[in-house]
Amino acid sequence: EEARTRIFPYLESNGIMSKGRYGAWIYSSMEDALLDGLNAGDIIREERKKRTLLTIKEQQESQKIGRQSA
User: Fold this and answer.
1) Per-residue pLDDT tens over the stretch 4-46
2) What is the distance between the alpha carbons of residues 67 and 70, in angstroms, rounded to a whole number?
3) What are phi and psi of 28, to 5 degrees?
């Protein structure tokens, strides 16, 4: 348990999700493993949305700056 409390924050801070029966280092049923996978998919989807929105915002800001300097 002590190792998990030290390792998981490190992995998460580096963008690594350790999920499922073996990834979480705990016994879980197949249903739990599937739910972990779905949860990971939700996290990835939300992160992708944030990055897409950030990219759009950066492009809009860049266009504003370009128009102001022209």
Assistant:
1) 888 888 988 988 888 877 777 777 888 888 898 899 899 989 8
2) 5
3) -150, 160
